[in-house]
Design brief:
Number of domains: 2
CATH architecture of the largest domain: 2-Layer Sandwich
Radius of gyration: 39 Å
Keywords: Chloroplast, Plastid, Ribonucleoprotein, Ribosomal protein, RNA-binding, rRNA-binding, Transit peptide
Structural class: alpha+beta
Distance between the termini: 102 Å
GO molecular function: rRNA binding
Strand content: 5-15%
Family: Belongs to the universal ribosomal protein uL10 family.
Main location: plastid
Subcellular location: Plastid, Chloroplast
Length: 227
């Protein structure tokens, strides 16, 4: 677009400094548009990171399920970071403590015998994965920690052992299971003692009998294996 401006002297005689009619041309240029690559929105990036973390948590739980003998839930509400770190320090290497959402743990145990754990998936839980047959010894550190720190509200929310769900009021059964040495001693005494001792053993609760026979079979296998 062009515009022309004209100027004239008001005197009949031309003034020495008068300006002759002149024209001034102005050229207006359209602004140049610079196209920049569109950046992905921050919410999209956050969603991708969150999804990745969830997948990592599910995979971590699945790894813990391998060679796991017991899983127990602990009410996590009210725990401080310091308390959680201290608790982890009291646990043996055979016990792992993980904080994970119920939905993620539920996804990891879906289709497995650990699905029996679902009744305790309420509120916030920390999950105890026990990788040893010595169940009482594995649960004892948390009981002592709970008593020492006066964490009465942070009790066990439930557990699964050998495919069965144990409610909080049934944990005494888990915490008083016989150790391997006790099973061996009891079986040996039953086999060496009078027949009435063996009969008493056979009349014991089914679970205790299974543990006793299992330990005896394992012992025989170990003895028959060449060095």
């Amino acid at each position: 677009m062009e515009a022309t401006l004209c100027s004239f002297s008001s005197s009949s005689k031309p003034h020495p400094l008068s300006l002759r009619p002149q024209s001034l041309t102005l050229t207006l240029k359209s602004p140049t548009l610079v196209c920049k690559p569109r950046r992905r929105s921050l919410p999209f990036v956050r969603a991708a990171i969150s999804r990745t973390k969830k997948e990592e948590t599910v995979d971590n739980v699945k790894q813990q399920l391998e060679s796991c003998y017991l899983i127990a839930g602990i009410r996590y509400t009210g725990f401080t970071v310091k308390q959680f770190q201290d608790l982890r320090g009291t646990l043996p290497d055979t016990v792992k403590l993980i904080v994970a959402k119920n939905t993620l743990v539920g996804k990891a145990i879906e289709g497995t015998a650990w699905e029996a754990l679902k009744p305790c998936m309420k509120g916030m839980n920390a999950w105890l994965f026990v990788h040893t047959e010595e169940i009482p010894a594995a649960l004892k550190p948390y009981r002592e920690f709970q008593k020492e720190r006066k964490l009465d509200d942070n009790d066990f929310t439930g557990a699964v052992f050998e495919g069965r769900f144990y409610a909080p009021d049934e944990f005494k059964v888990l915490e008083t299971l016989p150790s391997r040495e006790e099973i061996y001693a009891k079986l040996l005494g039953a086999l060496q003692g009078p027949s009435i001792s063996l009969v008493s053993t056979l009349q014991a609760p089914a679970r205790e009998l299974v543990l006793t026979l299992k330990a005896y079979v394992q012992k025989l296998e170990e003895q028959s294996t060449p060095a």
